[in-house]
Specification:
With 761 residues, the protein is an alpha/beta fold. The chain has 2 domains: 4-396, Thiolase/Chalcone synthase (Peroxisomal Thiolase, Chain A, domain 1), CATH 3.40.47; 415-760, Thiolase/Chalcone synthase (Peroxisomal Thiolase, Chain A, domain 1, 3-Layer(aba) Sandwich), CATH 3.40.47. The chain contains 24 helices and 25 strands. Helix 14 (465-478) crosses helix 17 (526-535). The protein is globular.
């Protein structure tokens, strides 16, 4: 396997727009932290790393001439994306497969918090309702490239999001899924997360001082940064000179607390060890550490302990550049990776601004002034997020030898071992298979199990409903199996009920008297981190929040790593909830049916909308099978805006790799739901590709949600395991099917993001 190299980078932060301005301010030690200017918050006394450009000025930077609406998160992202694509000389005409993976948490929150009551009580701002979620921001940014990406997805693991985008991009390249990956993250400031961090009492009223004994917290920032990654061979083919190499990376989970780091920094320690192991480097090879270094009491002390565990008495120079930019949260892994690459390629070490007094117990002092004219060969950058989601990446100079180049994948197998759900059907079991509950209206609450079987009542009191569902289904799916190697979660909205509670209180109480619990549980990766904490799982942990393909992205990640031999098991979940308020909002933009929602009515429907569902499903994937295994995942692909021909070709390719043809399929599972436009896409594929194949549907039973596709895979797996497709799951025939062996699952969201998953016995 060739080395993975970086061929383009782009950045915007409070230091300025572009690498040139960023580099100048880093080398001259200029902070980008100052008073809040653009956000209308009562906490304007809190210093921040706010980008100086207004939304209109950002549009000018990218020559924005589109008529569609856009959020600030997406605008920041498109500025950085433009610079990265231009440096890498990508224009969509290369004939290569290109992925776009973006990290994000707040999504369109800065618009939602402005217009929340408009969403509920009038129709003046309906166009922003669909802009709230993280995946919408990524979709808007993809237009910067003219829609020429082959695959896009969104990672939401709080402050490690962009770093995890780098990791997924590298794995996609190693697997041969794509030739090039454009990776990073974007985040704008919002009142929501200013107030959220303020409730945690970790915001400093002065410019932050990471790793200083007298530190008092962090300064929030905003910005975006993206990297273009490819193999050396692809770069040579394109006749472009690389900037540096991605030598190694690691992701683990601290599995300790939702916002605090464990005293010994276990997750951070394991992430750095993994990064070193994957690169083939030794601790003494690292020339500089760009630390996570938030300036909070807990993070800096524990990250320092973790670094001491890795490097001992031979600590390389360390600094936190959040003292320049503020904490750009989901964008931090991208912003600080670009800064690390600038340091690597320009031979300097940024200062840890504001540092004066060492932390007792640390055997090192951060760099307190800019060091020029140094030779850096290997730079380590850390990004640690809420829930203990810890990631580390190593960038190396081009002229250095990498002792252990990244190896190509081995063709490992991937089996669905077990699954458990809580939904609008009977929970936990598979009663729905023979005796389904038929929803009588478009909005239905999930049927809850007895949660006392899974955790103590005192613990349950602190959890929202979706967290309870996720934990219960995780325990049930895992059964007597060992703790998995990875926990990978899909959620389009996260714990939206807690988001609404915090948002409503923030507006009604004029940003005062807010509860931190609602904020902590509003972050999308709360679900995966709480499961990891409950199971004491320190392995790989990632959360995907990409609208209707959130679960599909999680499944793809698990299959990639299992095929590569990186993991032997993974708990993969799809979790979303529907609240009355959000149901009402989405109804205004055509998401739901009114009146009859019976299967016959949904089949006949020639209008927008479907019925809603709450989705919580966990499945255990393993690299081996046994007598209880449900089925094997024989192939999978995800595509962005494919033509009809490209979609059919992808299906052919998946079947061919499994030694099958379309005639071997016993059924195709689709997301047919009664929504006119949604169903038209499925019907076109079915008519063109497999007109004689029986069709399975499931949304008439489980409803529509951003993670509803999890139930499509689940339904297909159960049918294979039970050797039966019952008549109530069949869309175009009434005769049940016995002994199915091969089932193809097709999912799409708004005919943009598609997935194809082949299940076999």
């Amino acid at each position: 396997m060739d080395n993975i190299v970086i061929t383009g980078t782009g950045i915007i932060s409070s230091l300025g727009a572009g690498k040139e301005e960023t580099l100048e301010k880093l080398r001259t030690g200029q902070r980008g932290i100052g008073p809040i200017r653009h956000i209308q918050t009562k906490h304007r006394d809190l210093p921040s790393g706010e980008v100086e450009y207004s939304d209109e000025q950002l549009k000018e930077l990218i020559r924005y001439q589109e008529e569609s609406i856009i959020t600030r998160t997406s605008l920041l992202g498109r500025v950085a994306l433009k610079e990265a694509l231009e440096e890498a000389r990508l224009d969509g005409t290369e004939g290569l497969h290109i992925a776009f993976i973006s990290g994000n948490t707040v999504g369109g929150m800065e618009k939602s918090e402005q217009f929340y009551y408009d969403f509920l009580h009038n129709n003046s701002r309906n166009e922003y309702i669909a802009m709230h979620d993280c995946g919408a921001c990524t979709d808007i940014m993809a237009k910067q490239f003219g829609g020429h990406f082959d695959l896009i997805t969104t990672i939401s693991t709080a402050c490690s999001s962009a770093a995890n985008a780098i990791i997924l991009g590298a794995n996609l390249i190693k697997e041969g899924r794509v030739d090039i990956a454009v990776v990073g993250g974007t985040e704008c400031l919002s009142k929501f997360h200013i107030n959220g961090f303020n409730t945690l009492m970790i915001l400093d009223k002065e410019p932050c001082r990471p790793f200083d004994a007298d530190r008092h917290g962090l300064n929030l920032g905003e910005g975006a940064a993206y990297l273009v990654m490819e193999t050396e061979a692809t770069a040579r083919k394109r006749n472009i000179r690389p900037i540096c190499k991605l030598a190694g990376y690691g992701n683990t989970c601290d599995a300790y607390h939702q916002t605090a780091t464990s005293p010994n920094g276990e997750g951070a320690y394991l992430a750095m060890c993994q990064a070193l192991k994957s690169s083939g480097l030794r601790p003494e090879d690292i020339d500089y550490i760009n630390a996570h270094g938030t300036g909070t009491g807990n993070n800096d002390e524990c990250e320092g302990i973790a670094m001491m565990r890795v490097f001992g008495d031979r600590m390389p120079p360390v600094s936190s550049t959040k003292s320049y930019t503020g904490h750009t949260t989901s964008a931090a892994g991208g912003v600080e990776s670009v800064i690390s690459i600038l340091a690597l390629t320009h031979g300097f070490i940024p200062a840890n601004l504001g540092y004066q007094t060492p932390i007792e117990g640390h055997n090192f002092k951060p760099v307190d002034h800019v060091i020029e004219n140094v030779t850096l060969k290997h730079v380590l950058t850390n990004s640690f997020g809420f829930g203990g989601n810890d990631s580390s990446c190593i960038f190396s100079a081009l002229d250095t030898e990498t002792p252990a180049p990244m190896q190509a994948s081995e063709a490992g197998q991937c089996y669905i071992q077990s699954a458990a759900h809580v939904s609008i059907q009977q929970p936990i079991g598979d009663d729905w298979f023979h005796n389904p509950v038929m929803p009588a209206q478009a909005y239905s609450e999930s049927i809850e199990p007895d949660y006392s079987k899974y955790f103590a009542p005192m613990a349950a009191r602190r959890m929202g409903r979706l967290l309870k569902r996720a934990l219960a289904t995780a325990v049930e799916a895992l059964g007597n199996h060992p703790v998995p190697d990875a926990i990978i979660t899909g959620t389009g909205l996260g714990c939206i009920a807690n988001t609404e509670k915090f948002l409503t209180a923030m507006i009604d109480n004029q940003e005062e008297f807010l509860q931190p619990t609602f904020f902590m549980q509003s972050t999308h990766n709360t679900i995966g981190s709480q499961v990891a904490q409950h199971l004491k799982c320190h392995g790989y942990n990632c959360t995907y929040s990409h609208r209707g393909t959130s679960f599909d992205s999680s499944l793809l990640d698990a299959c990639l790593q299992m095929r590569a031999g990186a993991i032997g098991s993974a708990l993969v979940g799809g979790h979303d909830e529907m609240t009355p308020a959000y149901f009402e909002m989405l109804g205004k933009i055509g998401y739901w049916k009114s009146g009859d929602v019976s299967p016959d009515a949904l089949r006949r429907a020639d209008s927008p909308g479907s019925l809603s569902g709450s989705c919580s499903l966990n499945m255990l994937l393993t690299d081996h099978s046994d007598a209880d295994t449900l089925c094997r995942i024989a192939g999978m692909d995800m595509l962005y805006q494919p033509s009809d021909e490209e979609l059919r070709s992808a299906a052919d390719r998946i079947l061919h790799q499994a030694g099958l043809t379309v005639k071997d399929l016993d059924a195709v599972v689709t997301g047919l739901s009664g929504d006119r436009d949604n169903d038209a896409v499925y019907r076109t594929f079915l008519q063109q590709y497999c007109p004689e194949t029986p069709v399975v549907w499931y949304k008439h039973l489980f409803g529509e949600s951003f993670c509803a596709s999890a139930f499509g895979v689940y339904a297909g797996a159960v049918c294979l395991h039970k050797k039966l497709i019952p008549s109530h799951l069949l869309y175009n025939t009434s005769e049940e099917i016995s002994n199915p062996k091969h089932i193809l699952v097709h999912n799409h969201f708004q005919n943009k993001d598609h997935s194809l998953i082949l299940l076999t016995l």
